[in-house]
Amino acid sequence: MESSWIQEITLHDGCSDTGKELWFQSFPHYTRQIRGEDNNASAVKVDVGIILDLETDVGKVMKISILLALADYHANASPSAIRIVPHFRDSKKDDVEAASAAIYLLKDVQVHAIFGPQMSTQTDFVIDLGNRVKVPIISPATSPLLSVKENPYFIRGALPSSCQTKAIATIVKNYNWREVVIIYEDSSYGTGIVPHLTDALLEIGTLVSYRSVISPIANDDQILRELYKLNTMQTRVFIVHLQPFLASRLFLKAKEAGMMRSGYAWLITDVLTSLLDLVDHSVIESSMQGVLGLKPYVPRSNELDNFTKRWRKRFRQEYPDMDQVELNVFGLWAYDSITSLAEAVEKVGTTAIPKLKKPDTRENLTDLHALGTSKVGSLLIDSMQNSVLKTGLSGDFRIVDGELQPSPYQIVNIIGKGERSIGFWTEKDGILYKLKMNGKTAKSRNKQLGAIIWPGESTIVPRGWDIPTSGKKLRVGVPVKGGLEQFIKVERDPKTQAVTATGFCADVFEEVIQSLPYAVPYEFIPFPIPDRLNLLDYDDLVHKVTSKDYDAVVGDVTILASRSEYVDFTLPFSESGISAVVPVRDDDRKNAWIFLKPLKSDLWITTGAFFIFIGFVVWVLEHRVNREFRGPKRKQVGMIFWFSFSTLVFAHRERVTSNLTRFVLIVWVFVVLVLTSSYTASLTSMLTLQQLQPTITDLNDLIKNGEYVGYQKGSFVKDVLKRMKFDSSKFRSYSTLEEYNDALSRGSKNGGVGAIVDELPYVRLFLKKYCRKYIMVGPTYKAAGFGFVRLSYSSDVSERAFPKGSPLVPDFSRAVLKVVEGELMSNIIQKWFGNETDCPEQDGMAITSDSLTLDSFKGLFLIAGVSAGSALLLFFFSFLYQNRDILATDDSIGKKLSAIAKVFDEERDNSNSKSESPEANESQTATLFAASEASPEYLPDLPLQSPEIRNSDGLGASPAAEGFSTTEPGTPVHETITGTVEERLDRALQEIVPR
């Protein structure tokens, strides 16, 4: 093995970045045989450059791993295989030294691959050199700023720091921390992770409240001042992305600043966790207890245990004067990278590898221009960009598109002198308590972390926020107005000038603050709402949040679409809507005309019209065939009205003979039944139930009557009334419930108003106090463009307004839900508004007219009209068909109509009596005889067995008879019965029926 400059290297970027397979590319610069160094003079020698910070422990760890990797490869290779010759150079923690070493290796040694450097700033320049000469550069630098995609000859030999950001975000989300502070190093190593970590946290709804940048050369006083600054803030969750030496100084000062006690949470990134053994044990025991750490997971194996023993032995041989340093993941990645490089070189071929192609010879060439171009670099890079090392010591060592693919991350808790594993994280499964490695598959045992000892030896999860020792409080604006103090009341102590707020809104706000998972200190700032019109109102109060005069607003502030354009609202905790309150009228039961109230006028008129229409239809259908519908014109007109209206009480006695008439009456009787039942129910309700009847039932009545309308001062209801076409000259504003009562009592004509329009919470509070005098009317209005939110709680529409995009909004909304769903809300409502059922006369529901309207019976009238009209049409078609001979004459239309009318007015030949069945005649006869027996004085001499009756045929017709006299002529009650049986029966019935 070639001896070379063995110098310590310093680690600038010790954090591992993306989890993609790292290829250590080493390209032989020329083929040469080394005699005296190797017994096999025919072996092909490949020169590989290695640039490390050999002044650092990490550089020394990687150097020993690289030497062992080459030894293992050569031991297992055939005698004629390629032999890799390493050329070590020390960058001495300096960018210029690293660049100089790379130029030397490429120009003088003509290496075909370079492993290193460690630091991101050094690697950036070396990558450019590799792209120029087409030599692969394999670097363990972890900064995401080094792009594999933009550098075709760059392969990352470690996980970039951006690979762990999702794991960090998952831990933060697991404990519901809403804000964090990132503490990072002011270098390419530190700044590279910040945008990736910020985006990962924003995806889970966590805000980076502050970014603390620590310079690598900062002294202890500067670090302490920065920590004191952090301690004045509310956030108590810190994510630390520093290298071991700087991190140890930070935690020492954090302990001194009192920031390692209960209530604080510290999370360190993977580089610091992986190199924790390089931190002084006294610092860990005194200042890092309870810290959470994240590092790439390295599965245990027999190969790893054997290699660790060999590594320790070789390290003691190389550095006998040093304290023992433990093997870390960077050493394992270096071993796997060199092994992958050796396999890639072997794939290219075992024949001689040509030297670098030199540029054309010219005068005054610089070192950069004198560099050649590798003829096999493209072959090697193609072989290494996508490869898998099945027996990697670091685990599943896979490189895809030049990036080392991520493995699971292990989450540890620093306790005592070291660390304790509490769980794992994988991109597929998230947080896991244990991993069961089955080949390449990680199976979850459960989804929770193990028990954690937090700073201050606390087992309670930090809330993430706390009251700062100094700093700004949440500035909360509260409205100050002259009335309705049940909702919000602001007072200022005359001595201390301290502002206090009481009322429903303030109590809910206090409970919400207590329900938050962190402490939020706040102070109330009064905002006056003047009594005069056209001055400051609630919109101006909300705008104070936009102008950053206030951080939040607490009070009876309604959620509106126009306001939500520039501020955010929490979830509502009360019902919302607009309704009107009007005075109650006197009891209608004393009204002499109350019997007309059950039906609206349009329903009365429609019902009367249908009674006449049905009577006319029945008359038309029965006129020609039923004697009861014949006679003088006055009798027929009276029959039309009498018959239809008698159906109202089902008192009609007239017989109907037409089937069409029966069909019409069946439908009409059903309609009458529904109408009478509805009328009876409505009238009964009016007469038996004591109701609070409003003076108006619709706000449109106020507009029609030109009455004044009142609203609460400073409320948005004024704009809603304008949208409803109210005249703004009819507006009057009030501040207290007493003013509402006085204005409604006086009315519009006496300097008051006809109605008060306000939001439901205020309306309910007003009705609770004056429930016997006023009532809520009409529907609850929702004006267009306004976002009212409705909840079933009798309280005000108060919300908390925050600046747009504030991270407090979702937390406050969740806290609002906790308060609303619990018993606290009921207690607060009872405290400020009492029991709403104290007034039995007022049920709080909007009142509308109790009279029945035509709309409720349109279907019934439609059915009745269609059935009656259909029957009438069928009758006329049948009548015209029977008299078609008249229509077929050559007479004029007038004569035809006159003839048709004359025929219609005549009684049909087979009319009532002839169409009756024998059974009907027998029934009539029996009835007549029964009547005579019961009342002999009517027909004392009527024979029980008259010849006419005995000889009547089945059709009810009998021969004409001259009649007969009774046995006692001259007696007044006696009369001669002449004519047919039918005529005599008719006359007898007329005598029986009372006159």
Give a nutshell description of this structure.
With 995 residues, the chain is of the alpha/beta class.
Question: Could you please describe the fold and organization of this structure?
Answer:
The chain is of the alpha/beta class. Helix content is 38%, strand content 15%. An eight-stranded mixed β-sheet has the order 7-6-8-9-10-14-15-16, sandwiched between helices. The radius of gyration is 52 Å and the shape is elongated. The protein starts with 44 loop residues before the first strand and ends with a helix. The N terminus and C terminus are likely disordered. GO terms for molecular function: ligand-gated monoatomic ion channel activity. It comes from Anisodus tanguticus. InterPro entries: ANF_lig-bd_rcpt, GABAb_receptor_plant_PBP1, Glu/Gly-bd, Ionotropic_Glu_rcpt, Iontro_rcpt_C, Iontropic_Glu_rcpt_pln, Peripla_BP_I. It is a multi-pass membrane protein. Belongs to the glutamate-gated ion channel (TC 1.A.10.1) family.
